[in-house]
C-alpha cells in the first residue's frame, strides 16, 4: 500500500504500486506516485533549508564567540550585542551556544575545574600553543561552513528544478520535461504557493520588525523565504 510517511523520507520509487487487500486502479496508482514524488522532493528541499540555517547559526556562534553570544550584556567582561547581532541565524546560534555551554559546564565543573589551571598566560609556551590551535580550528571551520552552505543551496536548487521540470515523477533532472496538463497544473499551483509564501513572509517580517519583536537580515530572508 502507499507509504503514509512519504514526506518523512520514503522514496517514491520504493512505494508499492498495489496491495493484495486493496483494489487500486491504474489512475489511482499514478496519482499516488505523483504526490509521493512531489512530497519527497519538497521534503528534501526543506531539509536543505534547515541545514543551511544550522550552518549559518554555527558561523554566527564562531563569529561572535559562544560565551559572548550567551552572556552578551549580562556580565562586565562581555559587551552588549553589536549592530549586526540580530537575525534568525544569530538567535539559532544563541540557542545552540546556550545548550552547548550548559552541557560543557555540567561536565567541566565536577571533572576538570578543580585540577586544570584557570589562567594560562598567553605568552607562555602552553598559552601560545592553545591560542594557535584555537585560531587554526576557527579558520578551518569558517572556511568549511560556507562551503557546506553552498553545497546545501546547490542541492536545494537541484530539487527545486526537479520539482518544476518533472513535478509528477522521480528520476534524473536531465531528461525530457513533462508537458501534459497535470504537470502544468502542478507548476501553476507551485508558482502560486511560492508567491503567497513570499508575500506572507515579507509582510510577517515587516510587521515583526516594526513592532520591535524581531529583525531579519536581508540575506536570511532571501535564503529562508525565497
Condensed summary:
The chain is an all-alpha fold and 226 residues long. 65% of the residues lie in helices and 0% in strands. The two termini are 35 Å apart.
Query: How much of the polypeptide forms β-strand, as a percent range?
Result: under 5%
Global structural class? mainly alpha
Q: Write down the secondary-structure element order.
A: HHHHHH
Low-confidence stretches: 4-8, 15-23
With helices defined by DSSP (H or I, 4 residues minimum), what is the helix count? 6
End-to-end gap: 35 Å
Mean pLDDT: 78
Name the helicity range: 55-70%
Strand count, sense and barrel status of the largest sheet are: none
Number of strands: 0
Tell me the overall shape: elongated
Structural Rg: 24 Å
Keywords:
226 residues, mainly alpha, 65% helix
Give an overview in words:
By secondary structure, the protein is an all-alpha fold. The protein is built from 6 helices and no strands. It has helices at 26-64, 66-71, 88-111, 125-165, 181-210, 218-224. The longest helix is centred in the middle third of the chain and has 41 residues, at 125-165. Residues 4-8 and 15-23 have low confidence and may be disordered.
What is the element layout, followed by pairings?
Layout (H helix, E strand, L loop, with lengths): L25 H39 L1 H6 L16 H24 L13 H41 L15 H30 L7 H7 L2
Helix pairs in contact: 1-3, 1-4
Amino acid at each position: 500500500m502507499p507509504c503514509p510517511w512519504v514526506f518523512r523520507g520514503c522514496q517514491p520509487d520504493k512505494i508499492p504500486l498495489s496491495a493484495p487487500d486493496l483494489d487500486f486502479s491504474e489512475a489511482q496508482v499514478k496519482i499516488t506516485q505523483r504526490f509521493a514524488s512531489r512530497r519527497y522532493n519538497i521534503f528534501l528541499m526543506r531539509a536543505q533549508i534547515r541545514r543551511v540555517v544550522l550552518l549559518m547559526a554555527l558561523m554566527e556562534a564562531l563569529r561572535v564567540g559562544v560565551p559572548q553570544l550567551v552572556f552578551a550584556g549580562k556580565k562586565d567582561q562581555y559587551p552588549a550585542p553589536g549592530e549586526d547581532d540580530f537575525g534568525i541565524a544569530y538567535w539559532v546560534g544563541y540557542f545552540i551556544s546556550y545548550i552547548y555551554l550548559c552541557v560543557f559546564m555540567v561536565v567541566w565543573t565536577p571533572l576538570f575545574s578543580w585540577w586544570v589551571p584557570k589562567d594560562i598566560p598567553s605568552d607562555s609556551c602552553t598559552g601560545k600553543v592553545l591560542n594557535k590551535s584555537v585560531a587554526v580550528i576557527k579558520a578551518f571551520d569558517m572556511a568549511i561552513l560556507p562551503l557546506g552552505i553552498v553545497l546545501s543551496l546547490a542541492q536545494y536548487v537541484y530539487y527545486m528544478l526537479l520539482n518544476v521540470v518533472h513535478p509528477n515523477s522521480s528520476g534524473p533532472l536531465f531528461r525530457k520535461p513533462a508537458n501534459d496538463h497535470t504537470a502544468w497544473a502542478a507548476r501553476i499551483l507551485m508558482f502560486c504557493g511560492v508567491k503567497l509564501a513570499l508575500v506572507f513572509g515579507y509582510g510577517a517580517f515587516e510587521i515583526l520588525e516594526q513592532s520591535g519583536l524581531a529583525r531579519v537580515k536581508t540575506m536570511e530572508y532571501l535564503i529562508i523565504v525565497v
